[in-house]
Amino acid sequence: QVQLVESGGGVVQPGRSLRLSCAASGFTFSSYGMHWVRQAPGKGLEWVAVIWSNGINKYYADSVKGRFTFSRDNSKNTLSLQMNSLRAEDTAVYYCAREIGPFSGFDYWGQGVLVTVSS
Amino acid sequence: QSALTQPPSASGSPGRSVTISCTGTSSDIGGYDYVSWYQQHPGKAPRLIIHEVTKRPSGVPNRFSGSKSGNTASLTVSGLQAEDEADYYCHSYAGSNNWVFGGGTKLTVL
Predict the structure, then answer these.
(1) Rounded CA gap, B101 and B110, in Å?
(2) CA A23 – CA A79 distance, rounded (Å)
(3) 3-state class (DSSP) for residue A88
(4) A112–B89 C-beta distance less than 8 A
C-alpha cells in the first residue's frame, strides 16, 4: 500500500536551517509529482511547494520562495525539503503528499512532522 | 495568491444534507477544473474526498459530491453521519504551478 513517512522535524531557532525528509513506498515514485503542504497550529492548510516527477521542475509558494529548496531522489524514493532562514511563521506541521494527477488533488499524505521555530 | 473563501462553520442533523461553498476567482476555481476537497479529523492528515470538481477517489462514499459554477465550488454531504463531523478544505490549481487552499469549514453534525 502507498505510504509516505516524514521525518526531520523539531525545534529550531529563528534564522537557522532544518531539513525534512519524506520516504515513499508502495507505488512507482518516479511517475508522480509530489508536494509539501503545511498547517500552522490551529490554522488551515497552506500549499508550500511542488516537484515534478522528473525532479527538475520545482515551484514554491511566495511565502517560502528563496528560502526553501525541494528535491527528490527517484532512485531512493525520497523527498527532501531544505528550509533555510526559518521564521516564527514557518512553525507548522509539514505534510508530504502525492498528486493524483498533474495539477489535480493530493490523494496520499504522510502523517506530518512538526517544525517549531522559536528562540 | 489569496486563500479561497469558505464559511468557517456549517452544521446539519443526521440524515440531512449540507453544502459547503468555496469562492475563488477566475485565476483559480473559475479558470480550471482542478478543484479538490479534503476532510480532516483532529490530529489526522487530510483525506482527499473529491478531485477535479466532481470525481470521488475509490473508497469515498457517494454521499459526498462536488460541483462548480463560475468562481464558486461546492461540496455537498448527503445523509449526514456522525463520522462526517470534521474540517473540510477546498483546494484549487491557480495556474503557473501554484495551488491554493480554502480557509477551512468546521462541519458539526447536530
Answers:
(1) 26
(2) 7
(3) helix
(4) no
The whole-angstrom separation of Cα A51 and Cα A64 is 14
Are residues A68 and A48 in contact, defined by beta-carbon separation less than 8 angstroms? yes
Helix (H, G, I), strand (E, B) or coil at A31: helix
Residues of chain B positioned with their CB less than 8 A from the CB of A109: 45-47
Of A35, A57, A106, Cβ closest to residue B48 = A106
Check CB contact of B68 with chain A, cutoff 8 Å: no
pLDDT digits (tens, 9 = 90+) for A22-81: 999 999 999 999 999 999 999 999 999 999 999 999 999 999 999 999 999 999 999 999
Cβ separation of B98 and A59 shorter than 8 Å? Answer: yes
**Residue A59 Cα, gap to closest chain B Cα (Å):** 6
State pLDDT tens for residues B30-63: 999 999 999 999 999 999 999 999 999 999 999 9
- The two most distant CA atoms of chain A are separated, in Å, by 41
CA distance B7 to chain A (A): 13
Q: How many helices (H) and strands (E) does chain B have?
A: 0, 9
For position B48, what pLDDT does the model report? 98
**C-alpha to C-alpha distance for B54 and B36, rounded to whole angstroms:** 8
**Residue A35: its chain B contacts at CB < 8 A?**
99
